[in-house]
Structures are given as C-alpha cells and as structure tokens.
TrEMBL record:
Pfam families: RemA-like. This is DUF370 domain-containing protein. InterPro entries: RemA-like. NCBIfam families: MtxRegRemB.
Length: 84
C-alpha cells in the first residue's frame, strides 16, 4: 500500500514512521530535530510556501506536505477494494 503525500509524491505506507502537525515545529525539540535534518539535507518540501500542514517522517526523508495529518491518516488507513 502507498500513501499520497501531495504533489507528485507517493511513498510506501510501511516507510512512514510518524506524521506531525506543522505546528509541532514550534517545540524546541522539534526545532532542533528539523535543523539537524536541514543540515543533513533530508527534508523534501512538497508544499508551496505558506501551505505546509504536516511533516511525514520516514527513515530516509522528511517530507513537508500540504495535506493535513488527519487526511494523511485516513489515506494510510484506507483499504481499497476492487470488484472483478
């Protein structure tokens, strides 16, 4: 299963470690974490400036998504059935 993060980015659901609200960036611990990630160039910004809503953490990358945490959660939990 895959999760669409916005833009043209789709990642395997199994790679998602956490989804954080963009407001979490105001926490000192989160700020430090994001500064380290910026230094390591592991942040991929999908959202347009000012439209960031969530951070999606994987082992290799942090994505800045324009899609809210609740919507990403619903997408990750969605099971798609097909009828043959």
């Amino acid at each position: 299963m895959f999760v669409h993060l916005g833009g043209d980015v789709i990642i395997p659901k199994k790679d998602v470690i956490a989804i954080l609200n963009v407001r979490a960036q105001h926490s000192p611990i989160t700020q430090e974490f994001l500064e380290i990630a910026r230094g390591e160039k592991t942040i991929q910004i999908i959202a347009e400036k000012g439209k960031e809503k969530s951070y999606v953490l994987t082992r290799e990358q942090i994505y800045v998504s324009p899609i809210s945490c609740s919507t990403l959660k619903k997408r990750a939990e969605a099971i798609i059935f097909t009828v043959d």
